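Per-record layout

source: Syntrophothermus lipocalidus
name: Peptidase M50
length: 273
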Amino acid sequence: MLLLLLLAYISLGLAREVLTVFVSVVLHELAHTVVASRLSVRVTEVELFPFGGQAKTEDFVAVNPENEVCIALAGPCTSLLLAGLAWLAVRWGGPQLFFLIKANLALGLFNLLPVLPLDGGRVLRAVLSLKWGWRKATVNVATLGQLAGGLLCGYGGYLLLYSEQGANFFFLGLFLWWAARLEAKLLTYGFVRYLVNKKGQLARKGMLPAYHLVAVSSTRLKDVIHAVSPATYTVVVLINDEERIEGYLTEGELIEAWFEKGPSASLGDVVRG
């Protein structure tokens, strides 16, 4: 769909503008990938949209809220930096740089809107997940994204009724609504896929190497969640002040609590439900 949209603009004689936007989006997403790599988060693929893109990580447990904020802000900061550099170079490059400035300003500022799947929405989700948990934060911020997409579609449709200037807003809103809807759906899918994969490994091999942790009930979930690894099965043994066992938490329970209660929840709260 994106390719068809780009070809349509090229057929209208806008090849230079399309190339400028495409390169700007690629650099925007490259910034996400570079920062993710610096934080030891592996990016498996990058999807490109008219308003930016999405760098998909290897695992949802690989990204904690602090890391996601840094990765999310890398793209808009790069776009705004490019706009600033192009503005400084106008005296040498001429007026053709004005479109580069406008494109990167629009890309950077639009992606700072606090709705998923935009970068600003990822920052908001990371902040809200500390209190609400990952799943609830994602659903709510993705709902804002669908609402924003619907409003853009409506605005674009209104302009199309009275002029020929609303197509961009309409298609942008459509992409935003679709991507926000997909964001909420893929959250549950990723969680289920991870658990099914581990269960499949256990069924095929009959056993898995285990990684045991001993922790007290006041330990925060975020302090143990990064022990979860694709190569081992993590089990947490919860003990009290007298060093007596209070309970056990399996890897599946840890990840589910990460989604439902957030990374700041204590292990004691998770055990008590």
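summary: The beta strands are 43-49, 52-57, 210-216, 233-239, 245-250. The longest strand covers residues 43-49.
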